[in-house]
Amino acid sequence: MPEILKPTLQQKLEERLRYYENLGIDLFYRNRLASEHAPPADPPAATVELPRVAPVAQGPVSKAQAPAAGKTAPHVEGVFRPSGPSLFEAVDKVHDDSLLKIQQDIGPDCARCKLHKQRNRIVFGDGSPNAKLAFVSEGPSADEDAQGLPFVGRAGKLLTQMIEAMGLQRGDVYICNVVKCRPPENRAPEPDEVAECSPYLLRQIDVINPRVIVCLGAVAAKTLLNTTRGISSFRGEWLDWRGRKLMATYHPAYLLRNPPAKADVWKDLQKVMAELGLQLPKKKSS
Ligand code: SF4
After folding, report:
1. What is the rounded CA–CA span in Å between residue 254 and residue 151?
2. Which tens digit of pLDDT belongs to each residue from 208-256?
3. DSSP state of 285
4. Residue list, ligand 1 pocket, CB within 6 Å
5. CA dihedral 19, 23, 24, 29 (to 10 degrees)
6. How far is it, in rounded angstroms, from Cα 151 to Cα 177?
7. How far is the CA of 117 from the centre of ligand 1 (A)?
8. DSSP class of residue 166?
């Protein structure tokens, strides 16, 4: 006998299915017998498995160095516990993914989280789709929200200087954020916003496939590493993230407020340069 769902439950189910479909999961089944003996309920929240954090030695990284399950360094307790499926598993299920496809999946009017209410532009990301180095930050600022590009304000100018000091151009790297819409008053994105938007970041990283990821600031580091530890406790250390090398360092906006910390960040970036085989640019002779 066909079951009739309450409109609110049906709406919730539709939203949840859309969420899975946006992540590339389009095959579903239901246990008909179970539903005959139990009242309808919300779809169960899947267990969220987020990555383990493992310090790694210096040296070239390869996919073969991806951590084996259960063999990594002590797991760092997570802070973000989204209610959807495992973000990382979901990302793996998107076949033939591309930056264009991800952008299309987000859509021009995304309203999946409350950050859509005050944004002007969705800031997707910018840079080379073949970048060996990706910078991940937390979210757009006012300038970025206005222009639709990441890191275009004062902090962006400083990041560009840092990239050039490494002997690269901005167009050589890829820059993106954990959330694509500006949090009001430049506050940190909230866990529910991170949970909604971060699958797109993870897909971006998988498509770009950089050798090195640099997290700019605590939010990016905590999102990718799923840790509650303060960034200063692991800043400048090489960590393994899904077979790639990851380093967290301070956000350029923090450096604008605390210029002495620039020395620490430069030390971190020199490690990144060594990993990527980059030489300091030669000074122009006068
Ligand atoms: S932050 Fe991400 S999930 Fe939220 S509205 Fe913007 S694009 Fe959509």
Report:
1. 14
2. 999 999 999 999 999 999 888 899 999 999 999 988 999 999 999 999 9
3. P
4. 106, 110-113, 115-116, 122, 179-181, 193, 196-197
5. -50
6. 10
7. 10
8. T
